[in-house]
Sequence to fold (316 residues):
Amino acid sequence: MNAYLPNHATISFFHHPRPIDLHLKQHCTSSSSCSPSPSPTSLLTLCSASTPACILNPLLFNGHLQTFWTAAKATDIPIHYKRHVFSAADPAFAGTFAVDFVVHPYADSDATLPPRTTYYSKKEYEDLGSHDKKPMVIVLHGLTGGSHEVYLRTVLEPLVEAGWEACVVTARGCAMSAITTGVLYNARATWDVRQVVRWARERWPERELFGMGFSMGANILVNVCEHWGLAGSRDVFHAWLPIHRSNHFNTHTDDVSDKCRVVVVPGRGGDRLPAQGGGGMFESVESGGGELGIAENMVGKGSVFKNHGRVSKESI
Fold:
């Protein structure tokens, strides 16, 4: 109906025809007083209920102007970072790369780095690590981007407010980081990300790790999981989200091309998402017979990840 109103656009959701069940958290006021367990729902239902109407500005009448406006308008999302420069552990991929960690706001600045970013001191870096059980997301930015990008900070803001920890793996030479060897990056360059994941698992052994990648970062993330294999990826990541605008969403569906894709793949811990102090939405994610699929163009034919059937479409 909204599509027939001025400046209102139809919002479409593309998903597997048999999505997995999501079990919502049970709300408790005390150890002995809890509300009945909510009925299972789906990611489609949650996205439909939480997505606001798309009301377009008539002056931004095409995608180019809309993209320009996201960069031109005064959007202030004050995420602060501390940066550490890692040296590659594998001599076959010699070089350095930066990782930006989300921290509490501070007043210092560094003109050689993006806004709200300074370097960790040696002591600050050595003090990293704990046995807390906070969820932690490892984020990969898009082509030539970095932790300063508005789309990335927009996603991180509610997660950080809910108590999550986060870091952004910066591709070599991006976000004012130095290029120290001839080894750069591409969509198959998984070595730096794999090193960060192993390092984070050692520093925070009790944390659930989540992977999130945007655009080219989504391709890198899927290739990281392909490198470890599906079973190995489930042992590393609690869940991982590749977010990618694809020209070929599904090999069996012709009418869903040129759309934005979000694929949620549950991972370690019995496919359970952590309940983070009342701030998290999900208690668990269970596969429940539903099949998860990823379009072949992200990982290549013959990969351990396959398409499973057609993609279903819902519009609001």
User: Anything to note?
Assistant: Helices lie at 43-50, 63-72, 122-126, 150-161, 191-203, 216-236, 268-271. Confidence is low (pLDDT under 50) at residues 247-313. The chain has seven helices and 17 strands. The longest strand covers residues 80-87.
